[in-house]
Design goal:
With 676 residues, the protein is α/β, with parallel strands linked by helices. The chain has a six-stranded mixed β-sheet with strand order 5-4-17-16-15-6, with helices on one face. A six-stranded mixed β-barrel has the order 22-26-23-25-24-27. The chain has a five-stranded parallel β-sheet with strand order 10-9-8-12-13, sandwiched between helices. The chain starts with a strand and ends with a strand.
């Protein structure tokens, strides 16, 4: 008889969906969204609805392997786990003895959002080893800094409250593509008369469905937010009572934004001045109004300031008071779990007597090029495809003196460079605990399906490696349940009292929050006095170096601004093995004007290039981008591309203004047609 088992989607998405798996004879036959979950509501995105295809793909890695070909060639032979673990431990011991343990670098991100397999036993292992620490900046660090500088806390409007909004602004947020479980609440709001506006350099699926789309030049979001403040303060559309009670520095802010006229912002953003005025007035006078801000906004050189400035708008208008008002970028900080107890950074004291050096993952190319890294362990990530300055990264991975271990489910680009390749479980095959960054429900998943072949979870692999290295600390004997209980051992009122038994029983548990949760309705900002501090003197905007208003010489050479947003049917590079994803990520969208000047037509092969590198894509001439902007959905596996390069051969390892994040969307390029 078929059996239904619960699970949780582990992919890097704000929705963190609750899943139901139909199991027949030990094999999954159907995957669907849990209809009882308040956010999942019984449906899944297109990519996860097909996840069982990935689960049972003939391309799954099932056994440990050792490289037998050249690095990057992708030729391996099967070995046993004992051989693999002994080889890794021996090489680590050799590197640590000759160069010091900080010559070993872990490289991981959110291939799984599970707390145990994403940042649990692995952190303990590398801390005890004394390996370099990784500054995990590749996705959200700039936005996190900007949000914290604005609000003091990374809280946001509950998704359920968007149904009450009268105006929803999706700012750098492709809701239909990357946050689809917010969409039903948006639909409900619109049925009740709400308007949906989108602000983005590309008119994506969400923009096409919106009441109005504002094309904004890449990386100019701060200028728009400052001009909106100019209108709101100049016309006295701010909420004077809220500003008086719960903010600090309003008069300085009003003076600071006086110079940020809509006309000045129009020149920088490409949005007509009269439209900026209308948008500011409508935002300030419509109650409730909610901004869904997403991470696309912070992937430019001024990304942290962009998020910071936008996040100040609800404090200026007082929309935090309203059910259905405010702003959402991330809800993650509300999950006040005992991460210190899970990760055990104190173990570094045994290895080094101090914290290990910190390496920014957005600068992997330079890190590998410096030869200070002698061993690399990659898991939950695919840096050969997703890291900026791809040619520098690949040159580093080809180093013969670099010992590389890769934990993977498929033989992706990075796996081809491994010396030892280890097969790992999918999220359907292991126990884990999940927080969300788009809602307020904590979730537990047990194995729903048996693991195939001889694959192991990240937790088990790092536990075994700790044993091979002779680490006898008690924490390496912890079971998954022990680790979950450690995480739940928190005095914070949002988490206190949630137990493993409750999670096992319910699957999904709302944090101990009031309903509705209005985090800043009466102040409560993460500052010493609980007020939102505008800190007007720090608010400013300078165009990115690689932009139409940046370095003139560079712009003359490379006249097009390239953005590479997430592909709707993929999840970074996770589904890069699928042919459908391969087709979409092989596409370059460009305007008719830019195409005509280069004799380019739809379906033509084109070369897109700058001083860092080039890649080959297929042209799609359409009206989804304005002249001067090109869009290449990401992230394609390089091994499936002509020349074995994707768009990250073009992106730089220049960092954001704060947070050390990558500047994927501050990238100037040129495009030419291939062939006659």
């Amino acid at each position: 008889m078929p059996e239904t088992r619960r699970s949780v989607c582990a992919l890097d998405c704000p929705d963190c969906c609750s899943l139901l798996v139909t199991v027949e004879n030990g094999r999954g036959s159907k995957l669907r969204g849990d209809p009882t979950h308040p956010i999942t509501r019984g449906f899944l995105c297109g990519k996860v609805a097909q996840y069982l295809e990935r689960e049972y793909s003939p391309g799954r890695l099932l056994y440990p392997q050792r490289r037998v070909g050249a690095k990057g060639e992708g030729r391996f032979e099967r070995i046993s786990w004992d051989e693999a673990l002994d080889t890794i431990a021996g090489r680590f011991e050799g590197v640590a003895k000759e160069f010091g343990p900080e010559a070993i670098l872990p490289y991981s991100y959110a291939g799984t959002m599970g707390l145990l397999n994403g940042g649990g036993m692995d952190r303990r292992f590398f801390h005890r080893l004394g390996a370099s620490r990784l500054d995990r900046t590749i996705c959200s660090s700039a936005g996190g800094v900007g949000l914290t500088e604005a609000l003091g806390l990374r809280y946001g409007t509950e998704p359920e409250q968007f149904r009450h909004s009268r105006l929803i602004i999706a700012w750098g947020a492709n809701i239909l593509g990357t946050n689809v479980h917010l969409w039903p609440f948006v639909v409900e709001a619109r049925r009740n008369g709400a308007k949906l506006y989108t602000i983005d350099p590309r008119r994506n699926r969400t923009g096409a469905a919106a009441d109005k789309h504002f094309f904004i030049n890449p990386g100019s979001d701060t200028a728009l937010a400052l001009a909106m403040m100019h209108v709101i303060t100049g016309e006295r559309l701010h909420d004077a009572d809220y500003v008086e009670r719960y903010t600090e520095g309003f008069e300085a802010l009003r003076e600071r934004v006086r110079e940020w006229t809509p006309q000045r912002a129009a020149e920088l953003t490409g949005i007509p001045a009269e439209e900026i005025v209308t948008l500011a007035r409508e935002y300030a006078t419509t109650r409730p109004a909610a901004i869904r801000l997403n991470y696309g906004t912070q992937r430019s050189e001024r990304g942290a300031m962009a998020v910071r400035t936008i996040a100040l708008l609800p404090a200026l208008t007082g929309s935090w008071k309203d059910i259905g008002g405010g702003l959402q970028l991330s809800t993650s900080q509300a999950f006040r779990l005992n991460r210190d107890g899970l990760e055990r950074a104190d173990l570094q004291d045994k290895a080094l007597g101090r914290p290990a050096r910190l390496v920014n993952m957005s600068e992997l190319g330079p890190a590998l090029g410096s030869s200070s890294v002698k061993a690399l362990v990659v898991y939950n990530s695919n840096p050969a495809a997703i890291a900026p300055n791809q040619n520098a990264v690949l040159a580093g991975l080809r180093r013969e003196d670099l010992f590389t271990v890769v934990l993977e489910q498929f033989q992706n680009d990075t796996a081809d460079y491994a010396d030892i390749l280890l097969p790992v479980t999918t999220f359907l095959e292991h126990t884990d605990l999940y927080l969300a960054y788009g809602h307020y429900y904590l979730q537990l998943a047990r194995p729903a399906l048996p693991a195939p072949g001889d694959v192991k979870s990240n937790v088990e692999i790092f536990r075994l490696l700790a044993g091979r290295m002779g680490f006898d600390d008690d924490c390496f004997a912890d079971s998954e349940d022990d680790m979950i209980r450690t995480l739940l051992d928190s005095p914070h009122p949002f988490v206190h009292g949630i137990t493993l038994e409750e999670l096992d029983r319910e699957g999904s548990v709302r944090l101990r929050l009031p309903e509705p949760f209005l985090p800043f309705a009466t102040g409560g900002f993460g500052t010493g006095d609980g007020k939102c501090h505008f800190r007007a003197a720090e608010l400013d905007y300078t165009p990115p170096v690689e932009s139409r208003h940046g370095d003139p010489a560079l712009r003359r050479k490379y006249p097009l601004e390239m953005i590479s947003p997430k592909n709707d049917d993929s999840m970074n590079s996770t589904f890069g093995h699928r042919d459908a994803v391969d087709l979409e990520t092989a596409t370059l969208h460009l305007s008719a004007a830019d195409a005509a000047g280069r004799a380019i037509h739809t379906s033509d092969q084109v070369r897109i290039y700058n001083d860092r590198g080039s890649c080959v894509l297929v042209a799609q001439v359409d009206d989804t981008v304005e002249p001067g902007v090109v869009c290449a959905p990401s992230v394609r596996w390089g091994k499936r591309s002509p020349g074995k390069r994707n768009v990250n051969a073009l992106t730089s390892d220049r960092l954001t203004d704060a947070g050390g994040g990558p500047t994927f969307y501050s990238c100037l390029v040129q495009v030419e047609r291939i062939g006659d």
